[in-house]
Each structure stands twice: as C-alpha cells, then as structure tokens.
Hints:
The complex is a heterodimer of chains A (151) and B (126). Chain A has 151 residues and is of the alpha+beta class. Helices cover 41% and strands 21% of the residues of chain A. Chain A has one domain (2-147): CheC-like (Chemotaxis protein chec, 3-Layer(aba) Sandwich), CATH 3.40.1550.10. Chain A contains 4 helices and 5 strands; from the N terminus they run ββαββαααβ. Chain A has a 5-stranded antiparallel sheet with strand order 1-2-4-3-5. Helices cover 43% and strands 21% of the residues of chain B. Chain B contains 5 helices and 5 strands, in the order βαβαβαβαβα. The interface between A and B is medium-sized, with 27 and 23 residues.
Amino acid sequence: MDSEHIGESRNRVQLIISARSSGPGGYTSKPAELPREETQQRFTQALESAAAEVFEMMVGTPLGPSDEVTLPRVADYTAMIGLAGGLCGVLSFRCSLASAATIAGKMLGTDEQTSEECIRDALGEICNMVAGSFKAQLSDVAEQCMLYIRA
Amino acid sequence: MNPLRVLIVDDSSVMRKIVDRSLRQAGLELKEVFEASNGVEALARMQQTRVDLILSDINMPTMDGLELVRQLQAVENAKGVPIVMITTEAGEAHVVQALSSGARGYIRKPFSPDQIKDRIIPLLQG
C-alpha cells in the first residue's frame, strides 16, 4: 500500500494477512468452511479498510493500494501479531527504515528523529490496531478470535 | 471542569503519548499525567496517588487491564475513579467483561480525540 502524504516522498508499507477462518460459528462444534474466493475477498477488503482506518486516525495520513505487489522488496522492519480462535493466522506489517521513522514521528506528533525503541513500539501498535480492526470487521467468523500480545 | 490528574496504562510508550495528546486535543486540561506500562505498575502508582481518571489498555504483560480493574476495587485511592479501557479488543464479549469487571467506559483503538471526548467527559461530569 502507498501512503502518498507522509513526508515528501511516497512511503510504502506492506501488510500481509495469512489466516484461516473456520466460518460462522467455526469455534463451536461444527466448523463450516467459507468458499476460498469469498474468504480471500472478505479478508482483503477487511485488511484494506482496517489499515486505512488506522493510518488515517493514528498516523494522520491516507493509505491507498500500491501498484506493485512486492513492496518493499527488502523490509527493514517487520511487525507481526498472531490471531487465534475462530480466525487464526498471522498479520505482518513491513516497511523500510525511512517509512518506519516517518510513521513513528507522525504518531508521536514530532518532526524530530525518533529512537529505535519508539519506532519498533509504533510499528507494533500499528500492527496491533490493524489486526484488531480487521478482526472487528469479520465479527461473524472472528467472534472468538484472540490477539496474541505482540513480542 | 478542574484540571485533571490522569493515569495512563499501556505497555506501549508511543500509545501512552498518543492518549495524552488526544486528551489535550479533546479539550481536557491536564494537571498531572502518570504513566504505567502494566497493571502491576498501575496498582503501585494508585497505592500512592489519587487521580481523577484512569485509562487502561487490556492486553499487557505481567498484569492485564481486566485484572487491574478488578484489583483496583480494593484500592482506597481508586474508589469512585472512572476507569476507561482503551484497546483493540472491541468484541462484545470483551466489552461486557471489561464493564462487569468495573470499567466505566470502553474506547476502541484506533480512536480520534472526538471519541475520547464523547466517552470521557460524561463520566467526569457524572
């Protein structure tokens, strides 16, 4: 995804969801698999919407889809959070050092250089909030879903 | 409304700063802001300090926000102090669990200063 208004240049971040849904009521006794395409479409929409919401509200910048699939090619930072329950899997967030520093600075409301610790903390929170929002949008399949505390 | 003394509990220092800033952007005047990175630190702080408002995350290491709310019931300085959970865990079950533990409000991350204002000011006025 591209964030066009962070700093002076385009900043690219990548969000990847790798998850399996056992369908509505899936955490109970009879899991019902959703059709694969339907699941993928719902996951993609939910992830895009969740990421856009988090970036707009907490980073103060719009986020749009990127025209390239594998951005950034080499990520300097990767944050990950696990989901367990009716929806289980991993959400990862990747970006370059420059994008990470810009995001952390925006979140903290400062133009000054942010510490390594703050950058890692900020990206972890981004990942955490995107996962929470993603999960909330899939409440029918994720009702019993839990987020692991990020490491 | 008098300037507030607030305790912000979150394992993320970035999030604590964002909550602090959002409270100010929401128009609340803050006299003193205390920070804690988990429930144990928050409990220790509340043994020594009286505040007007506690804002706490749920998912934290060492002691989570729900356990903190339960244990605060026995802390003299916390009696009558509104506790608001600020968390990514916004499912109905989590909200019910938090409110039944003793929290007075619930704000989902991500949030805007307006949402903070809408949820917190009525609690402080009530």
